[in-house]
Each structure stands twice: as structure tokens, then as C-alpha cells.
Here is the input.
Amino acid sequence: MVCLKRKLLAHRLALCCALVLLFALTGISSKAYQLTPDVEDFSKKFTFVRIKYGDQEFGGGARSYRYQLGRWPPWSHDWPRGGQHFMKILSEVTKVDPNPEEVIIGFDDPRLFKYPFAYLCEVGFMYLNDKEIEGLREYCLRGGFIIVDDFRGERELYNLQAQLRRAFPDLELQELDLSHPVFNCFFTIKTLDMIPPYGTGAPVKFYGLIDKYGRLMMIVNYNNDISEYWEWSDDPMMPIEESNEAYKFGVNYAIYALTH
Here is the structure.
């Protein structure tokens, strides 16, 4: 743990300088989300795949307050810094060789099957069409692993459950405890009482979607947003202890995805 803290602190200082300069020079236009880019084949490296949903103008399904304000689509929250920072930490604390850049792709794109690990957020505002539902089901049953993150409240949980029942009518989300292998496959997670980056008063819970063979296909971070910690881990205002814990969960998720 001490070694991890030292590494993260060093990376935080370096990233803080480099990333501030990078974003100051280039900026991130909202138009960057409006086209589906050609997906280069990064499947030979471990890749952080971000799932997009809705049409290219982001009119599909319900819309989060961020979209209503004209800022960015809900599935893009914490892009690109969250994934970039996480891949950097994964490369430093494991022997995994990650691709530093995210791939953004939908459940309805067959290229998704090249990548065993995917991230999905703001599911309280998600509605998937029939083709996306079919792709979600096939991706999970073929061995894909999905992190569901950045959502809170009963209404948003009900929306996720409704979408999953369309894809998996025979399965239900199950609440996970510390005995599950996903919390012990690399780091030993000692508590699930994680502090969310912004408090709502609701307890953080971890749910899983498990196939008939006992494999965890999806980990659901409910009332939580671990990618928020990843995104701002180079900011001195973000508590390093809480960022460390968020990275530990993420690393465990990645290792579980690669070994199960």
C-alpha cells in the first residue's frame, strides 16, 4: 500500500503538469463526441472501451442534466482523463500492457467483441434499442466484462434493471460482498464502505450480473463514481487515499476480466 501511494503521488505530480498543458493547448470540443471515429484495432493490447449509446446526435433515450445543458452526452462522463489515468496506473502496478487511448464504441458494433473489458456510465439516462440490447447480451455471454459506474438513486437503478431484463430475462443483479473474488484477485479490498466523490447520503453498493456458470459479467458501482476519482487523481484537492482505493477497485476489475 505504501509503495502504491508513493507511485500514485509521483504520477499525480507529473500528470498534473503534463495534462494541464495538454488540455490548455488542445481543448476538448463537444463536437468530438458527435462522430463515431474509425476504431483502430487495439485488441492486441488491453484497451479501455467506453460504451456509447443513443444516436450520433445523442437523442436516444433519456438525457442527463449535462446533456440538457448542451455540454456533453451522458456516456462520456470523465472522458478522456479517467480512462487515461487508469491505464497509466494499471501499467505501473501490473504487467498488463495497456493501450493509453480509449476506444469509444456501441453495443451494436461487432468490433466490440475484440475487446474483453468495457466501461458504461450514467445508466440512469440510458435506453438501448433492440440491436444494442442484442449486442449487450452477446458481449457478456461471449466473455466480455462491463463496469457500470456513475449513477445513483432508486429511479436510476430501476432504469438499469429494466434494460438488463430485456437482455437477460432470466438473470437479476445480485449484491456482492467482500467474499467475491473480484475484490481479492489482485489487491485485497478490505471494505466496501467506499466514500463517493460527491455525497448523496445513500450508501455505496456493489452489484453483479452473474452467468449460469458463476462468472461475473458485469460489476455495478451503485451510488458511486470511481472514474471521478481517476479523472481528478492528479488534482491536489482530491484526497490521495480515496483515489488509491478507487484505483484498487479498477485494477481488480481489469485483472478479473482478464482471468475469468
About this structure: The mean pLDDT is 82. Helices lie at 2-26, 65-68, 81-93, 130-141, 154-167, 226-231, 240-259. The CA atoms of residues 47 and 99 lie 5 Å apart. Residues 2-26 form the longest helix (25 residues).
